[in-house]
Amino acid sequence: MRVVIAEDSILLRDGLIRLLAANGIEVVEAVGDAEAALVAVERHQPDLALLDVRMPPTHTDEGLRAALVIRAQWPGVALLILSQYVEERYAADLLASTTSSVGYLLKDRVADVDEFVDSLRRVADGGTALDPEVVAQLLLRRDKSSLHRLTDRERETLSLMAEGRSNTGIARALHVSESAIAKHVNAIFTKLDMPTTSGDHRRVLAVLQYLSE
């Protein structure tokens, strides 16, 4: 996998380079601002661009805007956004057009190396990776007239699905069987009036679309 990193913190940028290299992931270029990120993506056409939300010159939403440009001009490049805080608006903007090959994680998640690398690989493979805190905010924003029909366990399942986890991953996290999770998933789609599909990936995308409306 080939990755472009855009992060204005030198320490974090260097740390990400070392972390990815240690896990067999090639960083083709690492830059400190959004403009340089666009140049690097055009030059290298990487598998994934790893972008900080806030970068020079204004430290507001440069990384997000760069991500949207990348999505429009180089749709084959997966996107993983890092943010210091939960910024629901940015997550919603990122998910507005598509929910494949995209991730939004808080920087604290980098400390869990295995989970972070797994999320990065999942996004590069066409999947999704949403931070649990972001998912929680999106869930709270939904109309309770729909979500109140879910049981507590179904809410937990929905949250983990929206993070991009497979049924196996959800079962492991909740310490239940995969067959139990399959039943919860079917119940969620029934209660939210959403069509079921045959693939876990498509189910996750459908849920993400629902959450981002």
Count of individual domains:
2
Shape: globular
Mean pLDDT: 84
The first-to-last residue Cα distance is 32 Å
Point out poorly predicted stretches.
Answer: none
Q: Level of helix content?
A: 40-55%
Q: What is the architecture of the largest domain at the second tier of CATH? A: 3-Layer(aba) Sandwich
Number of helices: 11
Q: What is the CATH fold-level name of the largest domain? A: Rossmann fold
Number of strands: 6
Describe this structure in words.
The protein contains 11 helices and 6 strands. With 213 residues, it is an alpha/beta fold. It has 2 domains: 2-134, Rossmann fold; 142-212, Arc Repressor Mutant, subunit A. Helix 3 links the parallel strand 3 and strand 4 (78-83). Helix 8 crosses helix 9 (167-174) and helix 8 crosses helix 10.
Supply the key terms:
213 residues, alpha/beta, Rossmann fold, Arc Repressor Mutant, subunit A, 2 domains, six-stranded parallel sheet, 11 helices, 6 strands, 14% strand
